[in-house]
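re: that complex we talked abt at group meeting.

here r the seqs, copy pasted straight from the sheet so there may be weird spacing, ignore it
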Amino acid sequence: MKKFIKYIVLMFTLVSLNACNEEEFLKEVPLDFYSPENSYVTYSNYQAALTDLYARVRQIHAFGSNANEDVSHLGTDIAYNARLDNNRIGNYAISFTPQSGLIELQWDRWYKVISNANTIISRIGASDLTEAQAKEVQAEAKLFRAWAYRHLVYYFGGVPILLDEVVAPKTDYVRATKGEVLNQIIADASEAADNLPDITAVTMVKCHHL
Amino acid sequence: MECYEFLRDHSKCTQALILIMLLNMVAVGFAQAELTTAGQSALEKNAQNQSVSGKVTDTDGAALPGVNVIEKGTANGTITDMDGNYSVRISSENVILVYSYVGYISKEILVGTQTVIDVSLEADITSLSEVIVVGYGTMKKSDLTGSTVSADIESFRESPNVNIMQSLQGSVPGVTIGQTNTTTGEPSIEVRGVSTLNGNNDVLIIVDGFIFSGRFGDINPADVKSVEILKDASSKAIYGAQAANGVILVTTKSGNYKRKPTFTYSGSVATSSPTVNANLLRRDQFLQKVRDLEWIDSYTVESGYTEENPAWDIYSSDMTPPLVRGFEDGSDFDWYDQLTRPALITSHTFGATGGSDEIKYYLSAGYTDNKGFIKGDDYTRWTIRLSLDAKLSNWLTIGTNSSYTFTDFSGDAPNINQIVRTSPLVEPYDQDGNLIINPVGDVNTNPLLPITNDDLEKRNRFVGNFYALANIPGVDGLTYRINFGNNLVFSRSFGSSIYGGGQTGSAFKNNAYQFEQTLDNIVNYTKEFGPHSVNATFVYGWNTAEYERTSSTGEGYSDLDLSYNNLALAENQRIQSSAWDESLLYQMARVAYNYENRYIFTATVRRDGYSAFSANNKSAIFPSIGLGWAISEEPFMAMPQISYLKLRASYGENGNRALRYSSLAVVEAGGGSNYVFGDGSATSVGRSVSSLENKDLKWEKTLGYNFGLDFSLFNDRISGNVEYYDSRTRDLLWTQALPELSGFRNITTNLGELQNRGFEMFIKGTPVANTNFTWDISVSYYKNNNKVVSLLGEDLDGDGKEDDLIGSNLFIGESIGTIYSYQTDGLWQVNEERPDGFEPGSYRVIDQNNDGQISPENDRIILGRREPAFQLGIQNTLTYKQFSFRFFINSIQGGKDGYLRENHADGGYNTKGNATNANWFDFYNYWSPVRPDAEYSNPWVGSPVSGSARRFVQRNFVRLQDISLSYSFKDDLAQRLGLGSLKLFVSGKTC
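got the structure back, here u go
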């Protein structure tokens, strides 16, 4: 019996030698991508986030790689595409449907600009920014938000107004009226106009983080 | 004693002798059971110890090597040599010797005054005495309470299978193996239905007890001894969080103790070609197609577009100038022939196996070369495998099971889509013999371009698995085993193309490295107390994996003479790298108890902690329980016809491995978020949140029960099993579609419930069993019903039933592969009254609610599903003297509305220009007014639903999948050639 116990003890010692601290061992830390915890803290983080807004707006206005995405001119009295398929704005019956990819692009892309702007605005409070920096960053983000709503309201009419960062899933959005959206645009744009430097004062602003 | 015979036959015994003596010196103090050594045998004759010797044979008189001859109740014993002889020293006359061997009925003999005992053992014909590999050990098949099956790979040894999974196609009920299109593809594996929507779909692969996170293609099929599949929840539960999709246990060959070295060679050459020969359009058919596509102008209005319009000529069509030139100079090029060749598979495997008293080994080297049907689709594989076990003393065994696999996928193959598309009116080479970049004159490049690329794709996999097994002395039946596994892969993917980078030349080098390590502590206690027998296992272990990859690309080269070996010569250089790591920590306990082999009980508990589980749910517990009742062993059930009858019931829980980093929020940097501000500074790098976090994300949990009946009738003439199972998977990892206006396309959450319920049947029988002729047949039948039981749990439309999620194609009460689409009924003809927007030649969509409009909400219905109704496999083996003929029939049927798939030409022909200039197969029967009964819509006509209306067709098939004829030379004939055995075979396979 003694031998038995001796061996059991020996075995468990061996086993516990290669036992691990579970919490440390199983901690998941991403190696090659950023997480929000380390991305909205310093001024240079916020500059990076604002750069993203510029990039997105440019992508929409430059119509990606495809002139068919120019919904602000195609299908109007300026021009229309003579092909009849649903990837080109020529025949409204075929192309202006809820399944149309071209219409969906506009909706998705402008709302992503709004969402990213909201993330910036919501996180300013907990960041390391000084008051002056916070005001400036918030104003710039709100300008983009206003620009996005300006397009959405003229394409779709009254649309849901989102002003906060999305952290949990939500599916019950409600359309606001056109008037409410226009008022929101005016509020955001006015704040931007008040707090951003004049066009003549814009110099190497974006290089601060270098 | 037997060493004298060794000495007579080989000189190797001297070496073995020295080794034994060395080992005995190392194992000081622990040697209890001794093995006969020549040095001592001279002394023993006069000692008090008695010695018994003899020969063990089977009932036909053939020698049985490797039979255990043990003094009952002790560890004293020996094993018979290759001639069946043994000699054992016993302590007294009253000793009982137990003769046991796998597959044979054990015999016990009281020694008494005998000094020579010859024994003949009877084969244990019930297949249920066979030992089957289960997780962390083995179990007798008769002790199983769950659904574990051993695949019949022997029947497919002669098929030209490059991948061991091909031997399981259609022959194992419950397991569905998919097809591959290229030589480098891995077949898909599905066990008892799909139990996840978005989670990991992979089965867990265990090779020789070690987790193997690699491709089956890296294992040489000739090295595989057996493949077991754990199907039901209770047998999978020992692998906890990784087991939900099924567990496949592969056991490779190992050596045998006390065996002369045996050298084996097996080789095969196979060729393959498509069974349905697809033909592309040639010149005349192509020109006719161009005319038909322009039917509005090229046919006369008066005839209803059925008579050709003489005023129309080919120059009015949308053909590009190169095609027009090809029309004028009579070109008719066969592109398909240029890029295809007869496929060839060559395979060679050399093996050496054997063992001494203490060491057994299996060494094999294999080479496989698979040249695919498409030029450039090549695959070469070299494997070396060593399995070594060494008994250091009578209580300590160490060993290794290591392999090295080198695979070479080099060589760019052109995409079959490009081959199909290019018109016969153009040729690939110009007059000077150079490749024309855009032969058709549009954006499509020459399909032959990739063949000129320099492409290197090689992968080296090193697997080093080591173990030590200790029989704890003093405690009978207690063992401790430590497993240490390493799996290292180096992947290199290098290439250069003079046509890349927009014709400026491109070259790249990608290097990836993946390393996995496992450590298992396994404690096992096996003991029989009279009618009770207990087997308890406890496991504590961890598994870690890390991966990193570096990628460098250069574009803009003046020349590519140095190919990818000097990337610095490129004008534009891009670098990239990525990395991930993960870890798993687990504990497992299992108890298996049986009473007189009649009442069986198994219970397991496994606890898994996994780094990819979210912060609030890092670990999970997976229990299971199983019961078995061997009815045939009951005294009241003694019927001569029934050799064995067992009822099984089990219940268990498994989890599905979460996807790495899926619970964390991700911020993406660079790429589309970069911006240049035009103030002279460098590009500004942007960041954007691309996915939301979910701290409460749980793993998917599957609970299932399984009922099974094993039977064996008429002395094992007919045997088989029947299973019924029902599994529910809850907390499905699901990317719930979010409204895009939130800025996120989706979020990973746990939702809903899936059910997989099915029935499996496997019957094996021998209808004819004569001396010279036998016929074995086995039938496997499998049916699975997949159903979405619940999703979000909402009922927003207030109809009393839970809402479907149409946007994600998920319907309550229907399977995952449900097809929800417009119902088509032929095609619109020219003169028919059509709804607004539908052109002639588009699919006629049935207006389900008769409101005169075709809309997605009202006119889409459930047409059927992708999953099949049932699968049936029939394996036949006919043996006549030395000949053996096998054939296997595989069938998958869809029933009323199952096994559907879209049947639609989706080559991007949706404009008149694209359709005119593209080529396609001659079976593409598209609509035009001269072909009003065609099956497919006109390629370019529009309709409001042209992106979504489709034809769906059933894919049912019955096919003769494997067939082989082999001739085994008689042993004496083979021996005259100096061989132990020789078999020649010829086989065929359709897949």
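couple things i noticed - The CA atoms of residues 966 and 985 of chain B lie 4 Å apart. The longest strand of chain B covers residues 506-529.
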